[in-house]
Structures are given as structure tokens and as C-alpha cells.
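Quiz preparation item.
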């Protein structure tokens, strides 16, 4: 199968990119939620983003989890269900093939927790999951108990987290007056933390059309995704926990605590080994990096937002692939490329001189 050339790629720019790609021995890719948009998964920020209508501090911080673990587990139960329903798209497969062809010189640093890159067969040694994985769990008592579990695909994890069962009841426009109520002292604490962590840099962008367009593009790259199969936006799902600890996944080791998703929330450090491995890519005593691909991320969250600049310091030219040109950060127009459009449509074309046509590489990962 040959992909149609995305119409908005300038042939001269593409040729320049291809020249650099073909000569590159070390390449780094930084991924964000946009790469999985064509697979039907919502991004965070934007019209149908996961965070529209949600208080980020309630669902993506340790303080939020401590306050209402049921609410956070409902959010992640929904995310696990959507990720299990989704399939990797052409962009995930293309990067997996690039990793095989440029081993070990190509490494992907993904912020995504959706497991789609591993499912596309991306070699594990060349994939760093910076923010963890939805299907890894750990005991909340990391010091005393330390239980961890990888690759738990059970869905739902407990009967109380069966969000499908309740969908007819919970779907509907979120009523701001009817949100789960938090205690005012905790809210003041969260607000302070919000300001500390998110700072002035945090900008919850207003509605844009970019999150809808990928559905059309997905059809153009082989029609693997069902059009119209986009999940209801998270903002339309009422998260009102009312769940007790007994309703939530229990730690099988210590049998005293609940489990939490092994993902990285705001204010938490990345897993030490992952952070060290990522930083080691840019160490002074390593070979130059020729190319950095920044794919489907708003580049607002650190430390991931800083990796492209680190690659630049190692000599890399930077190619941004995004639906929204405005999300290409720190641009140097004389050196950088911005390819605007759906990553699933653009990436296979960009990488073609090294990975060949999808007919050749997708088969080797399908089995
Ligand atoms: C398409 C498309 C299509 C759509 N094709 N494109 C330095 C300065 C300021 C603040 C900090 C700093 N360093 C650290 C901080 C604090 C904080 C931070 O970054 N805050 C900022 C918001 C200002 N960082 C942290 O807290 C991090 N921890 C840390 O640094 O620890 C230090 C420490 C050390 C020692 C002790 C303690 C602490 C942790 C950050 C964790 C982020 N976690 C989340 C949740 C993960 C779990 C989950 O998934 O639920 O990660 S937040 C959320 O944002 C998630 C994402 O991975 C991450 C990035 O979002 P992403 O992927 O960019 O998505 P969107 O929606 O923003 O963008 C989508 C893009 O796709 C858009 O550009 C679209 O246009 C595009 N798009 N369709 C191509 N088809």
C-alpha cells in the first residue's frame, strides 16, 4: 500500500529533510498525545481535550489522588478502556520501523501512556515512556510495600470502575455546580500548588479544529480507524466518585493499600532510570545527534519540552510534525522544518527513504 502524499508538504522542504534523514546516525523523537489522535484517543488540551471541564489538579496530581482516589481512578479507568479499544496508527508503526532500521541510534522519548508505541512493535530498548504507562500499576505505599505490576490489561479493574455500565447515567454536560466538592482547605492548597507547578507558562488553549481533523486523515492512510468512532469527550463524562477505597484496585502484596496507575503526575519526578536514560542521550561525551523529531506535542510540559533544545545543542536539526504550526516551539526558520498536518499521514512519507513503503514494514509488525 502506498500512502497518498500529504498535500501540504512542500517538495523542496521534504527533499531537504530526506537528505538529512538519510545521513543521520543518531535521531531522537519526542512524542505527545497528537500522535495517537488518529487512533481515536483524545489529546489533553484543546476542544475535546481530556482536561476540558476537568480540574487538572484533581486528576493529574498526587494531591488530587489523595483527596479523591475514586475520581482519579474513574478518569484512568476511562483512559484504559479507550486505549484498549484503540489501535496503533501509521505513525506509531513508522517510528517502530525506523527504530529497527536505525538501531540503536534512534530513540523515541514518548510522553504518552497509551501503550500504542509498544503495541506497534517499537523496540523496547529504544523507547522511553517518560510519563509511565496506563497498564502498569503500583502500590501507593512505594517505600513500605513497593509492589509494582506491569502490563495489567484487565478492564475494568474492579466492578465499581465499570464506567461502561454507567455510561447512560454519567454522560451529559458537566454542571459546574455539580462537580465533586472538595474541602476548601484542600482546594486552597491545590490552587497554590497549581500556581507553583503550572506557573504562568501554562496556557489552557481555547477551542481549535485540530483535534477533529485527524479522523479524516486516518481514513486517507488506509481507513484502519472507524470514522465517527471518537470516544465521548472526557469533559462530557461526569466524574463524581462517591467511591470508597474498597471499590478501588487493592494491593495484592501488602493487602492494606490501594494501587495507583504508574503514571507521572504534575509535581512528581520521572522514574529515575527513565530520566537518566533520556538525559544520557544528550550527554557531552556522546556522538552528535543529527535529527530531532517533535511529534504531536504542545511542548508545554517539562522535562519533555526541553529535549528538542538539548538535541539542538548536540547538533540536531529539528522537525516538528503537528496539526497546529503554533505548537512548534523555539523555531529557527533557517534550520528547522515544520510539517503541518496529521502525524499518521505525514510521518510515513517523511521517513520513507529509510523505512520504505508501509506495505513492507507494517506486515513485519502485524504478526
Ligand atoms: C496533532 C494531532 C495529529 C493533535 N497529528 N499533531 C520547568 C519550567 C516550568 C515548570 C516546570 C519545569 N520543570 C518541571 C515543571 C513542572 C511541571 C510542568 O512541566 N509544568 C508545565 C505545565 C509548566 N512538570 C512536572 O511536574 C514533571 N515533573 C518534574 O519535572 O519533576 C521534577 C521533580 C524532581 C524531583 C522531585 C519531584 C519533582 C512531570 C510532568 C508530568 C506530566 N504528566 C501528564 C499526565 C501523565 C499521565 C496521563 O497521561 O494522564 O502527562 S500531564 C499531560 O501533559 C500528560 C502528557 O504526556 C503531557 C504533555 O501533553 P501533550 O502530549 O503535549 O498533549 P497536548 O494535548 O498538550 O498537545 C497535543 C498536541 O498534539 C497539540 O500540539 C496538537 O496540536 C497536536 N495534535 N492532533 C499531529 N493528528
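Solution:
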Amino acid at each position: 500500500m502506498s500512502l497518498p502524499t500529504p498535500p501540504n508538504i512542500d517538495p523542496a522542504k521534504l527533499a531537504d529533510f530526506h537528505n538529512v534523514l538519510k545521513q543521520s546516525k543518531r535521531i531522537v523523537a519526542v512524542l505527545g498525545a497528537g500522535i495517537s489522535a488518529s487512533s481515536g484517543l483524545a489529546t489533553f488540551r484543546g476542544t475535546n481535550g481530556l482536561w476540558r471541564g476537568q480540574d487538572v489538579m484533581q486528576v493529574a496530581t498526587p494531591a488530587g489522588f489523595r483527596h479523591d482516589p475514586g475520581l482519579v481512578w474513574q478518569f484512568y479507568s476511562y483512559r484504559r478502556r479507550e486505549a484498549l479499544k484503540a489501535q496503533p496508527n501509521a505513525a506509531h508503526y513508522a517510528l517502530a520501523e525506523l527504530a529497527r532500521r536505525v538501531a540503536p541510534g534512534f530513540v523515541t522519548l514518548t510522553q504518552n501512556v497509551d501503550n500504542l508505541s509498544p503495541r506497534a512493535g517499537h523496540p523496547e530498548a529504544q523507547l522511553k515512556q517518560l510519563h509511565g504507562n496506563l497498564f502498569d500499576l503500583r502500590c501507593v505505599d512505594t517505600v513500605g510495600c513497593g509492589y509494582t505490576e506491569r502490563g495489567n490489561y484487565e478492564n475494568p479493574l474492579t466492578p465499581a470502575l465499570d464506567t461502561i455500565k454507567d455510561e447512560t447515567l454519567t454522560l451529559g454536560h458537566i454542571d459546574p455546580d455539580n462537580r465533586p466538592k472538595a474541602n476548601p482547605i484542600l482546594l486552597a492548597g491545590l490552587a497554590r500548588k497549581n500556581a507553583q507547578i503550572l506557573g504562568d507558562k501554562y496556557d489552557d488553549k481555547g477551542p481549535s479544529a485540530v483535534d477533529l481533523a485527524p479522523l479524516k486523515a486516518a481514513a486517507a492512510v488506509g481507513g484502519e480507524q472507524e470514522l465517527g468512532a471518537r470516544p465521548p469527550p472526557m469533559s462530557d463524562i461526569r466524574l463524581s466518585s462517591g467511591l470508597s477505597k474498597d471499590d478501588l484496585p487493592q494491593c495484592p502484596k501488602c493487602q492494606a493499600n490501594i494501587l495507583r496507575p504508574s503514571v507521572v503526575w504534575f509535581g512528581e519526578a520521572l522514574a529515575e532510570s527513565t530520566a537518566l536514560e533520556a538525559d544520557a542521550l544528550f550527554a557531552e561525551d556522546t556522538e552528535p545527534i543529527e535529527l530531532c523529531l517533535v511529534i504531536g506535542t504542545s511542548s508545554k510540559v517539562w522535562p519533555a519540552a526541553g529535549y528538542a533544545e538539548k538535541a539542538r545543542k548536540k547538533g540536531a536539526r529539528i522537525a516538528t510534525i503537528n496539526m497546529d504550526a503554533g505548537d512548534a516551539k523555539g523555531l529557527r526558520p533557517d534550520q528547522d522544518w515544520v510539517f503541518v498536518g496529521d502525524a499518521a499521514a505525514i510521518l510515513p512519507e517523511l521517513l520513507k527513504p529509510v523505512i520504505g513503503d508501509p506495505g513492507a514494514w507494517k506486515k513485519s509488525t502485524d504478526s
